[in-house]
Automatic annotation (TrEMBL):
This is 3-methyl-2-oxobutanoate hydroxymethyltransferase. One of its GO terms (cellular component) is cytoplasm. Its EC number is 2.1.2.11. Pathway: Cofactor biosynthesis; (R)-pantothenate biosynthesis; (R)-pantoate from 3-methyl-2-oxobutanoate: step 1/2.
Length: 278
């Protein structure tokens, strides 16, 4: 597959990716990557590396704010991160997750929060979790002119209701997931994340939907794949979910840099003459 003429990778190199570009990519069968970003350098680096979509995820809860999960994250905590990512990425389409509690009360609250995020951060789209119960909110937000990325399957904001980090869509549940995905597309979502979904179900949903389907732990047949950047780069400690692949070892790199700095300071090797004003 040649992608040089794709708006995602070639095309007019000096404009931001649009939701139309993502739709076109699906029509052409072009796969694309999405990464989370929560700050300036990661946004700048991933943007320049050609990642077409950056997600300011509420996974900031357990990757920035040192919570155990995403549930405590607030809109006040999300917006500064989103602003930093928007200011740092020139090409990528930036999506901001709506955190738990900022849209579940109803479509009125969902729309009000989405408007606030769009006005105060400069992101190009919002994302929210949920199947059929979220359809009305998606519809209202889209009607207001705000692109919405949907998110079904394992939805981390509902981890307590689901009862753990469990694969979704196995057996009879698969049909419900397809029904929800079709309803979210009909409500106007421009794309949909499938998280921890059995691969055959994810493949069927990807085939049946016209909008891009973005997988995380949803097998190889989705239109796009997303990972949390600290997982992708080997920054995170501890056991990784099965769906993660680490493409770097940043944790080891930063650890050895910090140890070398400490060693140099304790032994008096740093600062040297070249780092010193006379
Ligand atoms: N760093 C990070 N990566 C993520 O993918 C991620 C976040 N944070 N935060 C928000 C949600 C939470 N996610 C998670 C968290 C844990 C598992 C997990 O422990 N998975 C195990 C299965 C555990 C079980 O069966 O109970 C696995 O091996 O896949 C999966 C997804 C995905 N998202
Ligand atoms: C993993 C992605 C899809 C997400 O919702 C997040 O990072 O918050
Ligand atoms: Mg999220």
């Amino acid at each position: 597959m040649t992608v040089e003429k794709s708006p995602l990778y070639g095309g007019e190199a000096n404009r931001r990716i649009t939701i139309r570009d993502l739709r076109t990519a699906k029509e052409r069968g072009e796969r694309w990557p999405m990464l989370t970003a929560y700050d300036m350098y990661t946004a700048e680096i991933f943007d320049q590396a050609g990642i077409p979509v950056l997600l300011v995820g509420d996974s900031a809860g357990n990757n920035v704010y040192a919570h155990t999960d995403t549930i405590p994250v607030t809109i006040e905590e999300m917006m500064p991160l989103a602003r930093a990512v928007v200011r740092s990425a020139k090409r990528a389409l930036v999506v901001c997750d709506l955190p738990f509690g900022s849209y579940q009360i109803g479509s009125e609250q969902a729309l009000a929060t989405s408007i606030q995020v769009m006005k105060e951060t400069g992101v190009q789209a919002v994302k929210l979790e949920g199947g059929l119960p979220a359809v009305d909110s998606v519809h209202r937000i889209v009607e207001a002119g705000i692109p919405v990325m949907a998110h079904v399957g394992f939805t981390p904001q509902s981890v307590n209701a689901i009862g753990g980090y469990r694969v979704q869509g196995r057996g009879a549940q698969g049909e419900d997931l397809l029904t929800a995905a079709l309803a979210l597309e009909k409500a106007g979502a421009f794309s949909i994340v499938l998280e921890m979904v059995a691969a055959d179900v994810a493949a069927e949903i990807t085939k049946r939907l016209s909008i891009p389907v973005i997988g995380i732990g949803a097998g190889p047949d989705c239109d796009a794949q997303v990972l949390v950047w600290q997982d992708m780069a080997g920054m995170r400690s501890g056991a990784m979910p099965r769906f993660v692949k680490a493409y770097g070892d940043l944790r080891a790199g930063l650890t050895s840099a910090a140890k070398a700095f400490a060693e140099d300071v304790t032994t008096g090797q740093f600062p040297g003459e070249e780092h010193t004003y006379r």
